[in-house]
Amino acid sequence: MAALRRIARERGGWWHAYVCPAHGVELDHGDLLSGVFPEGGARCAYGCRVDDEAVRGAWLVLSHQAWARHLRVLAHRKERAESVSRLVEYAGLYASLATERHGEAQSWMLRGRLFHQALTDAIWAVNVGHAVITLAEQSTEDLAPVLPLLDALERAALDARDVLTGQGHLASNYTAWLNAAGVAASRGAAAARGQGWDGAGQWLEGEHGLYAHLRVAVADDGWEWEGSTYYHGFVLRAALLALRGTDPAAVPSDVVDVLAGMTDVLAAIATPGGILPALHDGPYLRGPLALEWLELVALAQQLVPSPALDPVVGRARRDRCVAGR
Predict the structure, then answer these.
(1) Which residue, 103, 74, 53, is CA-closest to 7?
(2) Strand, helix or coil for residue 195
């Protein structure tokens, strides 16, 4: 009998809290699409079981993000009825739960609506928007109930970006993802309405758009300013996801050069076996991270192809297989 799948009915917390307090390791995710926190507590690799409010909130983040990725996959597989039904369900959930910035977020956070952090909201919104874009390529007849969600996600991304850039943080990796969320939500809404997209001025070309962010966040040597392999890839992936559906000829040449430079430095530090050294910050081996590298390389090869990244793909696939055992 297939496991039951349901979308959790609660807002998410902060995913960084999904860690064993005794051993400092990430806890086992369990069945994220079940919508139900692991019975008896989240399992630690050393035998602990952890169950507290912070861990439950972090698990909800992982669950909602897994659902957003799942909806994107369903759309690509043309499993339309399930994908649209779940998107409509999320539209209702978001309207009831995410009416204001999350009151339980820590004071230093850029507060989100469905999650503690606006960054977490943005990552979730990108997958939701892309699911709708894919569905709209097939038909728009049943997508009207999803429009309030997409419009709300765009407004939330703009509000959060205004707060962030108002603090002088145009170069923040958050800015990259907020712009990607704004692009995905607004493109999805335009596609669902059967209209052309007119959001480039706001989300790509504007004073606080993606292009402005990349111009200040990436040094002449191609590295994102934080000097971290993880955050470098994090920002590059957001940029490439934001540019989905954009004619490469329409991207300013200096921005293409930035993206090519960002790709080149990854190829330069990769070992012959495809290992990307974890410089400065970020996990060394993590199953979900392997998927992120696979997505990044697939996107990069469409815009700024580099055969030097092929070993990274092979290594990420092996890491994913090992992590999935």
Answers:
(1) 74
(2) coil
